[in-house]
Design brief:
This protein has about 190 residues and is α/β, with parallel strands linked by helices. It has one domain: Rossmann fold (3-Layer(aba) Sandwich), CATH 3.40.50. It is about 55% helix and about 15% strand. The protein has a 5-stranded parallel sheet, with helices on both faces. It is globular, with a radius of gyration of 16 Å. The chain starts with a strand and ends with a helix.
């Protein structure tokens, strides 16, 4: 099973991943994230830090990182029979790069999805940590171009579209509540899913 955690910056994904790692519920699960720690992921982080990076070029950096992640981590773990839990995955790209490319494509989310469709491995289930853009920007510290409330509002709209397109895959959790409540809900949801 491939389970992903998604949500805006500042929604608590990393905190929830730490709680899942510490939990005995999952046994030998494979925990991973995007962008990865590979040199592809490093290229992504360099691009994110560059205010003038071209959004289309950035999409393909993220896409290369995703391809390597699938080849090196996700598919081998699934082939071993592991549960794989990823902090961000392809939905982040659809939502975030869909927002950054909105001025270049009539339907940027559809474009990004079409780039991935022939080769990506869709998640079996996705926990979406829902938080409003202002809270997400405040919590994340708005340290890069993707973490502003204005940008996060567009990203959230894209996530809402993804949830509407595939409601059976997504489980929405209100991440505006105290962190301990959110963690408890995520742990309970993962236990039910696996």
């Amino acid at each position: 099973m491939l389970l992903t955690l998604e949500g805006l910056d500042g929604s608590g994904k990393t905190t929830c991943m730490e709680a899942l790692r510490e939990s005995s519920v999952l046994g030998d699960a494979t925990f991973t994230r995007e962008p990865t720690t590979s040199w592809y992921g490093e290229a992504v982080r360099r691009s994110v830090a560059d205010e003038h990076a071209d959004p289309l070029a950035e999409l393909f950096l993220y896409t290369a990182d995703h391809a390597a992640h699938l080849a090196r981590t996700v598919r081998p773990a699934l082939d071993r029979g592991d549960v794989v839990i990823s902090d961000r995955y392809s939905d982040s790209r659809y939502a975030y790069q869909g927002a950054t490319l909105a001025d270049r494509f009539e339907d940027a989310v559809a474009f990004v999805r079409a780039v991935h469709r022939p080769w990506t491995r869709p998640p079996d289930a996705t926990i979406y940590l829902d938080v409003d853009p202002e809270t997400g920007a405040r919590r994340s510290g708005a340290t890069n171009k993707f973490e502003t409330a204005t940008h996060l509002a567009d990203v959230r709209d894209n996530y809402e579209r993804l949830l509407a397109d595939d409601p059976d895959r997504f489980l929405r959790i209100d991440a505006s509540r105290p962190a301990e409540d959110v963690r408890a809900d995520v742990l309970a949801a993962v236990e039910r899913l696996v």
